[in-house]
Every structure is written in structure tokens, then in C-alpha cells.
Design goal:
This protein is of the alpha/beta class and 239 residues long. Helix content is 38%, strand content 22%. It is built from 10 helices and 7 strands. Strands 3-2-1-4-5-7-6 form a 7-stranded mixed β-sheet, sandwiched between helices.
């Protein structure tokens, strides 16, 4: 796919979300896609490798939450993988400060290459488990928004995310069509200082693929007990 065809498809799908796209932003997305495909031949980054699917299922899927993000906010993407949703959000929202967190160093190496090639400023790729990073004063309860896409069940995921959110900030948990797990996460939301703010259902443009964005607001400081040591949230979720 050449750049003009790519730009036309991306712009059309973003128009359906009422998002405008500049020439520079289009170029960044195009180069990001090319890097993703190139590096995916060396390390396993994504099962989605067809160009049109990358546009819809990675770029557009990441940007469906862009309306929640304002200029100059501090954002963290937990379990970012190949950079989703953090890098697409950062391309569109240039004035935010973005931290990308992942536990696999090979992904961090890829992310740093993307950041360098796309010349993105005010963005950091951090090699760490969320449970360890949240114990550092530099990061604990410092973020306006923490996002995560397809990482873990909600009661586990919130123990990773909530320690980073300042009181008054939000977690945006990006989920698929089934959100039955919300019921089992009610206790975790309460214990971790949160309140369910909104559940938004979205259908990706030109598809029948449904997504849910679960918005959790931080209403009180989190106990020092959380997060528990690395691995414990997965083995023994809050229920």
C-alpha cells in the first residue's frame, strides 16, 4: 500500500470518529505501520499484519478513546505491547506526556526505534512490570489518565492501573465485545479507590466489531498494600 492510499483510508475512518488528520500525522502513522510490519518479521509483536487491518484494528481502535484526553495531561499505557493505544494517541495528541510500560524488553527496543524514527517528543518507553513500577514515588498516583488495551481481566488489570492514577484522574480499560468481567471487578474497583464512571460501546468504522471502554474514576488514594508483589494479582485476583 502506498502512502496516498494509506492516508485516504485512515482519513476516511477517522472522519467517522470526527477526528481530523494532518499530513505530518498521516506520515507518522504510515511509517509506524511499516516499522511494525518490518519488526514483526523479527520479533512477535502482533498477529495483525495486513495493512488495512492494522489501520482499523490497531490505529482506529486505539484512537476511539482520544476524546477523553486533553492537552498537557500525563498519560500512561500499561502493557503497551507494540505501542497500542499509547503511540497512536501521542501522534494525535502531541502536547500530552506519554509513558509506555511493558515487561518485555524486546518490545521496548522496538518502541524506542519507533519513537526515534517518528521523532516523537515527551514519550518514554519503560521496561518494567507495573507492580514494581507503581512502588516508585516518581510514578505512583502521578497520572491524569492510565490506559490499557486487552491486557488482563478487569479485576487484575485495575490492580496494575489504579496505583498510577492521581485522585480525580481516570483509568480507561479498553475491552472487546464481552464485558461480563465487570461484575467480578466491583470489589476491586472499590478497594483500589475507584468508582465506575461510564461504559461506552463503540463499533469500529466499516466493521461489525464492537468494543467497550470502561471508565473508572479515582476518588480516593490507594492503600500502600497495593499493588501486591509481581505475579500475585494474576494468581490471586481481588474478588
Amino acid at each position: 500500500m502506498d502512502f496516498e492510499e494509506f492516508k485516504s483510508i485512515l482519513k476516511e475512518e477517522l472522519n467517522r470518529l470526527s477526528i481530523s488528520l494532518s499530513e505530518i500525522q498521516a506520515e507518522k502513522f504510515y511509517n509506524y505501520m511499516k516499522l511494525l510490519i518490518e519488526w514483526n518479521n523479527k520479533i512477535n509483536l502482533t498477529a495483525i499484519t495486513e495493512e488495512k487491518e492494522i489501520i482499523t484494528k490497531h490505529f482506529i481502535d486505539s484512537l476511539i478513546i482520544s476524546k477523553y484526553i486533553n492537552n498537557n495531561e500525563k498519560i500512561m499505557d500499561i502493557g503497551t505491547g507494540a505501542g497500542f493505544p499509547g503511540i497512536p494517541l501521542k501522534i494525535m495528541k502531541e502536547n500530552v506526556n506519554m509513558d509506555l510500560v511493558d515487561s518485555l524488553n524486546k518490545r521496548i527496543i522496538f518502541l524506542n526505534e519507533v519513537i526515534k524514527k517518528l521523532q516523537i517528543k515527551d514519550i518514554n518507553a519503560i521496561h518494567s512490570r507495573a507492580e514494581d513500577l507503581a512502588r516508585l514515588d516518581k510514578y505512583r498516583e502521578k497520572c491524569d489518565i492510565v490506559v490499557s488495551r486487552a491486557v488482563a481481566r478487569l479485576n487484575i488489570l485495575l490492580e496494575y492501573m489504579m496505583p498510577f492514577v492521581k485522585v480525580g484522574g481516570i483509568c480507561i480499560c479498553m475491552k472487546g465485545s464481552n464485558i461480563d468481567e465487570l461484575e467480578e471487578a466491583k470489589k476491586a474497583i472499590e478497594i483500589l479507590g475507584g468508582k465506575l464512571e461510564n461504559i461506552e460501546e463503540i463499533t469500529l468504522p466499516n466493521t461489525d466489531i464492537k468494543r467497550h471502554n470502561i471508565i473508572i474514576k479515582k476518588i480516593k488514594n490507594i492503600s500502600n498494600e497495593y499493588p501486591r508483589k509481581a505475579g500475585i494479582p494474576t494468581k490471586s485476583p481481588i474478588i
